[in-house]
Write a structure and sequence with these properties.
Blueprint lengths: L8 H10 L7 H8 L3 E6 L4 E4 L1 H7 L3 H4 L4 H4 L1 H5 L2 H9 L4 E9 L6 E12 L5 E10 L1 H15 L9 H17 L5 E8 L2 H8 L1 H17 L6 E6 L2 E6 L5 H16 L2 E3 L2 E3 L3 E8 L6 H17 L5 E3 L2 H22 L4 E9 L5 E12 L3 E3 L1 H11 L2 H21 L7 E5 L2 H4 L4 H12 L6 E5 L1 H5 L2 H14 L2 E7 L6 H6 L4 E4 L1 H5 L7 H15 L2 E4 L5 H9 L4 E2 L10 H9 L1
Parallel strand pairs: 11-12, 14-16, 16-17, 17-18, 18-19, 19-20, 20-21
Antiparallel strand pairs: 1-2, 1-5, 3-4, 4-5, 6-8, 6-11, 7-8, 9-10, 13-14, 13-21, 14-15
Bound molecules: ligand C2E and calcium ion (CA) (2 copies).
């Protein structure tokens, strides 16, 4: 390094800036007007030039800095390692600094800059000092930070998003691979029936609920934990270094209590509950997504076991989930490729002994599993939304079949009943679907009765009455299926124009056994009569039950004793016999 002080342009300019009465040189004007920070340091890293831009950027004027050493004036240079780069420049190297931060002394605002430090040499190549060119990057930094923040956060709640969460999971997995003795836990929270809140209060209020919950959940977290909103009404927690499963389940129970505390949204008290699935992160996992998936599977299991619960993942759940997924795919395929069938079970008049109606019951012949019963696939269909195409198909197929029977003999006044899930019943397009199915088959609305459950009419009475109104206009009848097992009130029965009640087979099964069944069946028959409805006894299996039903005044019955569900051709024979 050059110890001797050699005069150079830097000294000229510094002198010119210091001297009050000398006229501005061309250099001086240039230094003052350029929109870059220009600095010249001497060989002891004292400031020799400090232009106007640097004054604006730093809030320190030239007289304040000139002649003083860099790190004395600006401690941040040392804190951020810039002083070492300056020394390298003095040693003859050109270096760049990126994203140095600086707090403006007057405004307290954080500024960012980038710069180049180059050795300043004399004619013989000896280094006299350093020249620096500085550019402020605060705005770019701000935009980058904003973008980064947005990319990793959920705009609604301000919580981390899925991308950020998965990234944290990856880090946690790396850590646990090195320290298997310190597991972590992933908690997957899904709100129960959040759709009801959205539908009843509106989406804006739904958003407020999610925000309020997000804030509440974030409060209880340790600094090392991560909470993210994964989307919709789903949240996930990463709890670092838990002692074991006990810690995780205790945390889950506490979080569920937090979720269940009433919220006030727009002056209204709102009650929500949630279900949590727990997966423990250990060295057995290699991918973050697998962990999240398993917590999700456990969450579904928690929901299935009743709401407001938590459930810990175990590998058998995964097998079951895969199995369900396969079944779902098969069902989807069956629905689109004509792989479904309908069987029909007659309903008999106990007065004439003749079938007066047939109930269409879905059958799914499955390659590997044989004939899969609706009890095994209706729930799956409801969960996956396949219940809509299934219901639509049943309606059309059953109507077409009735048309075929009616072309033959003995079916002129035969009534067709079709089961409809509550989910399908609340669908706006149902009346149109029914009208289309009837029209395609050339049938009158009076040929059809829909079997709905009590749930269909109590869950959303406003929508139900619109659907019921439209169906009634078509002349379609409505039966309540499995009557007595739900919670329909007398008033809802009275409010809706219901045409018939199907007495659940559990009551029929109990007839004559000395329990409550006789009394219940008698009451339902009485109720039906007084409301002007039909009553149909389901699941009649023994002649004793049939005798008892007759004694009680029941006029319509269905069950294995009378006829099992049969393929369409067998029904045709039965009608002719
Ligand atoms: P459900 O509407 O109560 O239908 C009566 C069920 O009881 C049928 O079972 C029938 O085969 C069975 N059953 C009839 N008589 C007797 C009897 O004497 N004893 C006994 N133990 N059982 C009898 P299945 O066909 O397995 O259907 C089960 C349920 O699946 C039905 O109950 C219905 O809720 C639903 N389901 C069937 N097909 C459809 C469909 O196309 N759409 C919808 N949404 N649901 C359907
Ligand atoms: Ca039924
Ligand atoms: Ca039933």
């Amino acid at each position: 390094m050059d110890e001797e002080k050699t005069p150079g342009p830097a000294d000229t300019v510094a002198a010119a800036r210091d001297g009050q009465d000398e006229p501005a040189t061309l250099m001086d004007t240039f230094f003052a007007s350029v929109r870059e920070g220009l600095i010249v340091y001497d060989h002891e890293l004292r400031y020799r030039v400090w232009n106007r831009y640097m004054e604006d950027l730093s809030g320190r004027t030239a007289p304040e800095v000139l002649g003083r050493r860099a790190v004395e004036v600006f401690p941040h240079l040392h804190e951020q390692g810039v002083d070492r780069l300056l020394l390298r420049a003095l040693a003859g190297e050109t270096v760049e600094v990126r994203d140095v931060s600086y707090v403006h002394p007057a405004t307290g605002a954080v500024k960012w800059y980038t710069g180049t430090y180059a050795p300043h040499r004399d004619g013989r190549g000896r280094v006299l000092g350093v020249v620096a060119c500085i550019h402020e990057t605060t705005e770019r930094r701000r935009i980058e930070e904003r973008l980064l923040h947005d990319a990793l956060h959920d705009p609604l709640t301000g919580l981390s998003n899925r991308a950020f969460f998965v990234d944290r999971l990856r880090l946690a997995l790396e850590r646990v691979r090195r320290h298997p003795e310190r597991p972590f836990a992933v908690l997957y929270l899904d709100l129960d029936r959040f759709k009801v809140i959205n539908d009843s209060m509106g989406h804006d209020s739904g958003d407020r609920v999610l925000q309020a919950l997000g804030t509440r959940l974030a409060r209880g977290l340790r600094a090392s934990d991560t909470l993210a909103r994964l989307g919709g009404d789903e949240f996930a927690f990463l709890l670092e270094e838990v002692e074991g499963l006990g810690d995780a389940t205790r945390a889950a129970a506490r979080l569920l209590r937090e979720v269940a505390r009433p919220l006030t949204v727009e002056g209204q008290e709102v009650f929500v509950s949630g279900s949590i699935g727990i997966a423990m992160g250990g060295p057995a996992y290699t991918r973050a997504e697998e962990l999240l998936r398993d917590a999700d599977i456990a969450m579904y299991r928690a929901k299935g076991g009743g709401r407001g619960r938590h459930q810990v993942f175990d590998p058998s759940m995964h097998e079951r989930a895969v199995e369900l997924l396969r079944l779902e795919n098969d069902l989807r395929r069956a629905l689109t490729t004509g792989g479904m069938q309908l069987h029909y079970q007659p309903i008999f008049s106990l007065e004439t002994g003749r079938p007066v109606a047939v109930e269409a019951l879905a059958r799914w012949p499955h390659e590997g599993r044989g004939l899969v019963s609706p009890d095994d696939f209706i729930a799956l269909a409801e969960e996956t939304g396949l219940i809509l195409p299934l219901g639509q198909w049943s309606l059309r197929e059953a109507c077409r079949q009735l048309r075929r029977w009616r072309r033959g003999r003995g079916a002129d006044s035969l009534l067709l009943t079709v089961n409809l899930s509550a989910r399908h019943f609340s669908h706006d397009t149902l009346p149109t679907e029914v009208a289309t199915a009837l029209a395609e088959a050339g049938l009158d609305g009076s040929a059809l009765a829909l079997e709905i459950t009590e749930r269909s009419i109590i869950e959303d009475t406003a929508r139900a009455s619109a659907v019921v109104g439209a169906l009634k206009k078509l002349g379609v009848r409505l039966y309540i299926d499995d009557f007595g097992t739900g919670y329909s009130s007398l008033s809802s029965l009275h409010r809706f124009p219901i045409d018939g009640l199907k007495i659940d087979r559990s009551f029929v099964a109990g007839l004559g056994a000395g329990g409550d069944a006789d009394e219940i069946v008698r009451t339902v028959l009485l109720l039906a009569r007084s409301l002007g409805m039909e009553a149909i006894a389901e699941g009649v299996e023994t002649s004793q039950q049939l005798v008892r039903l007759r004694e009680l005044g029941c006029r319509l019955a269905q069950g294995h004793l009378l006829a099992r569900p049969l393929p369409a051709e067998a029904i045709e024979e039965l009608l002719l016999s």
